[in-house]
C-alpha cells in the first residue's frame, strides 16, 4: 500500500472542505498532581510532540499527528471512536530539574504566599483588600529577615563570636584555629571574625536572589493573551479575577519584591555586624571616629530599612492589563545600595580594636524577639482585615470565618521559626559537644529560640489530640455508612470485609472537609505559644530550664525536659528537610513526590514573597490558552478541555482567559476536581460560588465527574440550582462489589484516580460534544501545516 505523503494529505483535506465535511473534534487532556507521561495519558506506545519544549508540551498519538488534514473517514484508526486526543504534560514545571529539590528549604515562603490568595471575597478595589495584601507582603518580608537573621545567628554569633572566641571551643576545631584569640593573629579580633562570618549569610542572600531571578526569567515571562479591561467600569471590580489579562503575568511585582527582599537580606547582615560593633564603640573612652562612623552606618541602615518597606508597600499586583514595564531604578539601585551598606559595615567591623574581646552571646539577640513581635502584630492586623471582609459578604463554606489567610500566615511564621531555630539549635549542639544548647556556660543560641523549643512538644501534643479526635470521627462515620453501602449494589451478596473497606474509604475521604479544624487550632496555639515564648524570653532573659529552677520539682523537671526535647525536635526538623532535599536531588521518584507538594502550593503567582518557588501556572495557563485559541481559529472544530485533579484547575483558569468566540467552541470536562472542595473554600475570592457560577454561565457547557471515595475531588455545588447541569451523580466506586463476568477479579477502589476506567466517562464526554454546536471549516485559505515534532515513543 502506498504511503501517504503530505501532498496527498493536503489534497484530501482540500477535497473534504469543498465537500463541506465538518472539522474534527479535539480533546485536550491536562493531568493532575504528580505528573505522568504522554504515553500513559494517550494510552499509546508511540507519541509525538506537537508543540512545546522539554519543560511543558502538547503530545499526540503518532498516527494522529496530521488528523486535521485527512477526510473524516480517515482521521482515526478503525474501532477507535471519539475526538482526536492531545495531552498537555506540565509535570516538569514542578519536578523536572534536580535542583528543584532545594525548594523544600523555601517552604515557609511558599506558605506565606498562599496567605495572600486566601482572603475573603470582595471588590478588589476596596481599601480593605489592598490593606490585607499589604500586611501579607510585610509578613513575607519579615520571613526573609528571619531566615537571614538565623543564618547570621549561626555564622556570626555561634561560630565567629562564641566558639571562635572561646579557647575551649576553638581548640578542638582546627578549621577555627586561625580565628582563636589565643593565636593573636590578624583574624583574632572579634570585629574581623564577625566580618568573615558575614560571608555565609551574604552568600545565602545572593543565592536566593539568583534562584528568584532565574525562575522569574523562565516562568513570569510567558506572555498571556491580552484582553483590554476598563477598570473604571462598575462591573469590572466584581468580574472574576482569573478573567483578567494580567493575572498570570507577575513580571513587574516579582522584580520589585525581589529587589526589596534582597536589600532586606543585605541590611539584616549589615545590622548584625554594626549593632555589636557600635555597642563596643559607645563605651566610655571609645574612639571618636569609630563612634561617628557607627552612627553614620546606623543612619544608613535606618534609611535603607525605610526604603525597603516603602517599596514593599508602594504597590501590589497589576491584573487588569499585561504590565510588562520594569522599575529599573528600583530593582537595580535598591539591592545595590544595600550591598554597599553591607560592604561599609564589613569595613567598619574590621577596623582594629585591640581591646575588644568576645564574651557571652553576641549583643543584639533581642532582635529575634522584635521580629516575632512584629510578625504577631501583622498577623493580628491581617485577621482584623479578613474578619471585616468576611462580615461584608459571608459565605457558608468559607473556612475559619474568613481567617484562613491569617492562620496560614501564622503557620508560615512558625515554619520559618522552626527552620531558623533548628539550624541554630543543631549548630549549637554540634559546637557544644554533648551539652544541651542553652544549658551551662557553653555555646548557646538566643534565649527566644530555647523558649520556642520548649513550646514545640506542647504544640505536638495539641496536634496529636486533634488527630485522635479525627480518628474517632472516621470510625463513627464509617459505622454510620456501613448499612448504606449495599444500596449501591442491590443484587450482590454482602461481604463484611469488603463493606468495611468501602465505608472506611468514604469516611477517610470526608476528612478533607475537616481540614480547617486542624489548621485553625494549630495556628491559634502557635500564636499563643509564640507569645508566651516571647514574654518568657523578654522578661527573664533565661532559658526555660534555668528560669524554672525556683519552681517545684515537677515543674522544673517538665520545663527542662520540654526544652531538651524541643531543642532536639527543632534540630531534627531541619535535618529532615535537608535529608528530603538531598534524597529528592538524587532520586527522580522522590522528586516527583515533592513535586506534588509544589503542584498544590505553587499554582498561585508570587504576589507576596519573591523567593517562594515559582508559579507554574504562569507558564501552563498561557500554554493552554494559546493552544485552544489557535487550534479553534485554525481548524474551526469543537474542543473539550479535559482536566483531572489539579489539571481541572488549570483547565478552568485557561477557559477563563480565552475570548468569548473561542469559549463558544469549548466544553469543560473536570473529574476528581478540587475546584470547589479545596479552591472554592480556601480561596473564595477567586474560586468562590459567584466565580464558579460565572464560569458555568460563560463556558458553553461544563460537566464535573466525582466519587464519594475521592479525598480531593468533589461536586461543584453551584448556588443557583443549576448544579445538576454541571455535577453528575457520583461515580460508583468500586465498579463491582464482588466478582462478575466483567470483573472476574475484585474491582479496586479507585478513589482519586483512573476516572476513564468507568464506562460513564466516555458517555459524559460524548454528551458534552453533542451539546456543542456543529462547526463549519474556516472559509479562508488552507491552514498551514501542523508541526509534528519528534517521536517520543
Task: Show the helix and strand layout.
Layout: H1 6-18, E1 26-30, H2 38-42, E2 47-52, E3 57-61, E4 84-89, H3 92-95, H4 107-117, H5 127-163, H6 167-171, H7 190-197, H8 199-218, H9 251-281, H10 288-314, H11 328-349, H12 367-392, H13 404-431, H14 447-481, H15 496-509, H16 516-540, H17 544-547, H18 553-586, H19 588-601, H20 617-635, E5 639-644, H21 646-657, H22 660-663, E6 666-671, H23 675-682, H24 684-687, H25 689-698, E7 701-705, H26 723-726, H27 759-771
Parallel strand pairs: 1-4, 1-5, 5-6, 6-7
Antiparallel strand pairs: 2-3, 3-4
Q: What is the percentage of strand-forming residues?
A: under 5%
User: What is the total domain count?
Assistant: 2
Low-pLDDT stretches are: 1-19, 230-237, 780-793
Number of helices: 27
Q: How would you describe the oligomerization state of the chains in this entry?
A: single chain
Q: What is the general shape?
A: globular
Pairing-aware structural class of the strands and helices?
mainly alpha
Radius of gyration: 30 Å
Mean pLDDT over the full residue set? 81
Strands of the widest sheet, in order across it, are 2-3-4-1-5-6-7
Q: State the end-to-end distance.
A: 24 Å
DSSP strand count: 7
Helix fraction, binned, reads: 55-70%
Please provide a written account of the structure:
There is one protein chain. The protein is mainly alpha-helical and 793 residues long. 55% of the residues lie in helices and 5% in strands. It has 2 domains: 24-89 and 618-771, Rossmann fold (3-Layer(aba) Sandwich), CATH 3.40.50; 98-615, no CATH class. The protein has 27 helices and 7 strands. Strands 2-3-4-1-5-6-7 form a 7-stranded mixed beta sheet, with helices on both faces. A hairpin with a 4-residue loop joins strand 2 (47-52) and strand 3. The radius of gyration is 30 Å and the shape is globular. The two termini are 24 Å apart. The model is unreliable at 1-19, 230-237 and 780-793 (pLDDT under 50). Residues 1-27, 60-81, 739-793 are annotated as: Disordered. This is Integral membrane protein. Keywords: Membrane, Transmembrane, Transmembrane helix.
Amino acid at each position: 500500500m502506498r504511503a501517504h505523503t503530505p501532498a496527498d494529505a493536503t489534497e484530501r483535506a482540500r477535497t473534504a472542505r469543498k465537500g463541506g465535511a465538518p472539522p474534527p473534534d479535539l480533546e485536550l487532556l491536562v493531568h493532575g498532581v504528580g505528573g505522568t507521561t504522554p504515553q500513559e495519558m494517550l494510552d499509546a506506545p508511540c507519541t509525538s510532540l506537537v508543540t512545546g519544549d522539554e519543560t511543558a508540551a502538547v503530545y499526540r498519538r503518532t498516527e494522529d499527528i496530521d488528523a486535521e488534514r485527512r477526510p473524516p473517514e480517515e482521521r482515526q484508526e478503525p474501532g477507535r471512536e471519539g475526538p482526536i486526543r492531545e495531552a498537555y504534560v506540565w509535570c516538569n514545571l514542578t519536578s523536572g530539574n534536580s535542583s528543584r529539590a532545594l525548594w523544600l528549604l523555601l517552604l515557609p515562603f511558599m506558605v506565606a504566599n498562599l496567605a495572600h490568595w486566601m482572603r475573603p471575597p470582595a471588590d478588589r478595589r476596596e481599601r480593605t483588600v489592598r490593606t490585607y495584601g499589604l500586611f501579607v507582603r510585610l509578613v513575607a518580608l519579615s520571613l526573609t529577615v528571619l531566615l537571614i537573621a538565623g543564618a547570621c545567628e549561626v555564622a556570626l554569633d555561634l561560630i565567629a563570636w562564641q566558639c571562635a572566641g572561646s579557647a575551649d571551643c576553638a581548640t578542638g576545631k582546627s578549621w577555627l584555629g586561625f580565628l582563636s584569640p589565643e593565636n593573636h593573629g590578624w583574624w583574632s579580633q572579634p570585629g574581623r571574625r564577625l566580618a568573615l562570618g558575614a560571608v555565609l549569610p551574604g552568600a545565602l542572600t545572593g543565592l536566593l536572589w539568583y534562584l528568584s531571578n532565574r525562575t522569574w526569567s523562565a516562568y513570569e515571562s510567558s506572555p498571556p493573551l491580552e484582553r483590554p479591561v476598563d477598570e473604571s467600569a462598575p462591573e469590572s471590580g466584581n468580574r472574576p479575577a482569573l478573567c483578567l489579562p494580567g493575572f498570570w503575568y507577575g513580571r513587574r511585582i516579582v522584580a520589585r519584591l525581589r529587589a526589596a527582599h534582597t536589600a532586606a537580606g543585605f541590611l539584616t547582615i549589615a545590622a548584625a555586624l554594626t549593632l555589636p560593633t557600635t555597642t563596643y564603640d559607645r563605651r566610655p573612652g571609645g574612639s571618636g571616629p569609630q563612634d561617628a562612623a557607627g552612627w553614620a552606618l546606623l543612619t544608613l541602615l535606618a534609611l535603607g530599612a525605610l526604603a525597603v518597606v516603602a517599596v514593599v508597600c508602594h504597590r501590589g499586583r497589576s491584573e487588569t492589563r499585561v504590565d510588562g514595564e520594569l522599575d529599573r531604578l528600583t530593582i537595580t539601585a535598591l539591592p545595590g545600595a544595600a550591598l554597599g551598606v553591607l560592604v561599609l559595615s564589613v569595613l567598619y567591623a574590621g577596623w582594629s580594636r585591640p581591646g575588644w574581646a568576645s564574651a557571652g552571646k553576641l549583643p543584639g539577640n533581642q532582635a529575634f524577639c522584635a521580629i516575632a513581635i512584629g510578625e504577631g502584630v501583622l498577623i493580628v492586623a491581617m485577621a482584623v482585615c479578613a474578619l471585616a471582609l468576611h462580615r461584608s459578604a459571608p459565605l457558608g463554606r468559607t473556612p475559619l470565618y474568613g481567617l484562613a489567610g491569617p492562620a496560614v500566615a501564622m503557620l508560615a511564621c512558625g515554619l520559618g521559626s522552626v527552620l531558623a531555630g533548628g539550624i541554630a539549635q543543631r549548630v549549637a549542639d554540634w559546637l557544644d559537644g554533648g551539652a544541651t544548647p542553652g544549658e551551662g556556660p557553653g555555646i548557646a543560641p538566643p534565649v527566644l529560640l530555647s523558649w520556642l523549643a520548649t513550646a514545640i512538644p506542647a504544640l505536638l501534643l495539641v496536634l496529636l489530640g486533634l488527630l485522635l479526635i479525627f480518628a474517632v470521627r472516621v470510625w463513627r462515620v464509617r459505622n454510620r455508612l456501613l448499612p448504606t453501602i449495599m444500596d449501591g449494589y442491590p443484587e450482590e451478596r454482602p461481604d463484611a470485609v469488603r463493606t468495611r473497606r468501602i465505608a472506611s474509604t468514604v469516611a477517610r475521604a470526608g476528612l478533607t472537609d475537616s481540614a480547617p479544624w486542624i489548621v485553625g487550632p494549630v495556628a491559634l496555639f502557635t500564636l499563643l505559644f509564640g507569645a508566651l515564648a516571647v514574654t518568657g524570653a523578654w522578661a527573664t532573659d533565661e532559658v526555660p530550664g534555668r528560669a524554672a529552677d525556683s519552681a517545684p520539682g515537677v515543674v522544673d523537671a517538665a520545663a527542662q525536659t520540654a526544652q531538651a526535647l524541643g531543642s532536639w525536635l527543632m534540630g531534627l526538623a531541619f535535618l529532615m528537610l535537608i535529608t528530603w532535599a538531598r534524597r529528592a536531588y538524587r532520586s527522580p521518584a522522590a522528586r516527583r513526590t515533592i513535586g506534588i507538594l509544589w503542584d498544590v502550593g505553587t499554582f498561585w503567582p508570587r504576589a507576596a514573597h519573591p523567593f517562594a518557588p515559582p508559579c507554574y501556572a504562569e507558564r501552563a495557563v498561557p500554554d493552554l490558552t494559546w493552544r485552544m485559541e489557535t487550534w479553534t481559529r485554525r481548524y474551526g472544530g469543537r474542543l473539550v478541555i479535559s482536566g483531572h485533579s489539579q489539571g481541572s484547575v488549570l483547565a478552568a483558569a485557561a477557559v477563563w482567559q480565552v475570548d468569548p468566540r473561542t469559549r463558544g467552541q469549548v466544553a469543560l470536562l473536570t473529574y476528581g476536581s478540587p475546584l470547589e472542595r479545596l479552591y472554592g473554600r480556601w480561596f473564595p475570592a477567586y474560586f468562590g460560588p459567584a466565580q464558579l457560577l460565572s464560569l458555568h454561565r460563560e463556558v458553553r457547557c461544563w460537566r464535573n465527574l466525582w466519587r464519594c471515595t475521592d479525598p480531593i475531588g468533589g461536586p461543584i455545588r453551584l448556588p443557583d440550582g443549576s448544579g445538576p447541569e454541571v455535577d453528575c451523580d457520583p461515580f460508583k466506586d468500586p465498579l463491582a462489589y464482588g466478582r462478575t463476568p466483567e470483573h472476574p477479579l475484585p474491582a479496586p477502589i479507585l478513589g482519586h484516580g483512573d476516572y476513564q476506567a468507568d464506562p460513564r466517562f466516555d458517555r459524559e464526554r460524548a454528551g458534552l460534544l453533542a451539546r456543542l454546536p456543529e462547526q463549519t471549516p474556516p472559509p479562508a485559505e488552507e491552514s498551514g501545516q501542523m508541526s509534528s515534532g519528534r517521536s517520543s515513543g
